[in-house]
Design brief:
alpha/beta; 10 helices; about 375 residues; 12 strands; 5-stranded mixed sheet
Length: about 375
């Protein structure tokens, strides 16, 4: 932990330094006599450094809360405890409203109060940042999902209008083709809604794993059954290489969701009349379930962000299919909750292979 103390009074700086020698905190202290040098130091800190600012509100030539506003403006989202002189508690309370984590009156400083305030302020700041990240992720995902759902249902509505027109003309061959397309769009919307539901259940802590021994062949067949029309539409050849009676151990619904997302991506990013490979490589401890395609591949710049959602990774498929990027993040979380993991290898313009590394047997 790093403590940055900005205080123009040398006696107050020495007092705080002495108090910190009497607390149970593993903290490094940096002290600055003016706001400019303190702010400059904080701005140059690396993003992963956990620090807290102890800020004197009486820094000349600024008045009252101007120093706090200056720091929050130049070092946004920083954790700040403001230090006030005698009889300035109302000013401290206003500082809390303006963004400070807490305030201390200098006359009340003691090792115990200082340690408690630092600990609680840092914990509050971490919780606030975590909530902000969660809300940001939620807003981003809901925006992407809403966009993809709108496209899917727009396609369904458009195709139903065409079917109605062809029914009036009694053109049955064209109707069959349009019904296949409607089923395609409905299938995509269904998977997207399933992903949204499972993601929300994960976030709320409502998803409980029910592990059991599962047939790999049956898992692949059931997951593949969602995409009969998409495979037919792109004229893809699906090649399965699964040893007979091969099994893995985990939650059935979680693994089905993962495989659906991996197969959906393989189809989405495959070229027409190419191949998709479904393979299982068994071992005594862990087995690898692989989904490979010969499509457009993944740029190196995107691969590190595929399972985190930290960067926009949604890309259109080879025939303009929409993609929010939610499926892989969800799949990675589901895998981790089942003592499994997802891996990927890819080369732009040559295709991708995703691997679900899962326990082969029930742990002892």
């Amino acid at each position: 932990m790093l403590l940055v103390h900005i205080e123009d009074n040398i006696a107050d700086r020495l007092l705080l330094k002495d108090l910190l020698t009497k607390v149970h905190l593993k903290a490094k202290l940096q002290q600055f006599p003016d706001l400019e040098s303190g702010v400059k130091y904080c701005k140059e800190l690396k993003a992963d450094i956990d620090f807290l600012i102890l800020l004197d509100l009486g820094l000349p030539p600024l008045k009252e809360l101007d120093a706090l506003d200056e720091v929050l403006n130049k070092v946004p989202e920083s954790a700040i405890i403001v230090l006030t002189g005698r009889g300035f508690s109302e000013l401290g309370e206003q500082a809390l409203k303006n963004g400070a984590m807490d305030f201390l009156e200098k006359k009340d400083l003691s090792p115990a109060i200082l340690e408690r305030t630092i600990r609680t302020s840092l914990e509050r700041h971490r919780l606030i940042r975590a909530l902000q990240r969660t809300n940001s992720d939620k807003d981003k995902l809901l925006s992407l999902i809403a966009h993809d759902l709108r496209n899917s249902f727009a396609a369904i509505l458009s195709l139903t209008e065409i079917v109605n027109e062809e029914l009036a003309r009694n053109e049955s061959a064209d109707i069959r083709e349009q019904i296949d397309l409607i089923q395609n769009s409905a299938s995509k919307a269904s998977i997207l809604l399933s992903n949204l539901l499972e993601w929300s259940r994960l976030e709320l802590g409502l998803m409980k794993a029910l592990p059991e021994t599962l047939s790999v062949g049956e898992l692949f067949e059931e997951a593949l059954g969602f995409f009969t029309n998409q495979i037919k539409q792109k004229d893809l050849l699906v090649i399965k290489q699964v040893p007979e009676d091969q099994h893995i151990y985990g939650d059935r619904q979680a693994y089905l969701s993962i495989l659906r997302n991996l197969i959906s991506n393989a189809i989405k990013f495959s070229h027409r009349q190419s191949k998709v490979h479904l393979k299982c490589i068994p071992s005594q401890a862990y087995s690898s379930l692989e989904v490979s395609d010969h499509g457009i591949g993944i740029p190196d710049s995107i691969i590190p962000h595929l399972f985190t959602g930290n960067k926009g990774i949604g890309r259109p498929g080879t025939e303009g299919e929409a993609s929010a990027g939610l499926g892989l993040m969800l799949s990675s979380n589901l895998a981790l909750r089942n003592n499994s993991r997802l891996e990927v290898s890819s080369k732009a313009d040559f295709g991708s292979t995703f691997r679900l590394i899962s326990p082969t047997n029930k742990p002892d």
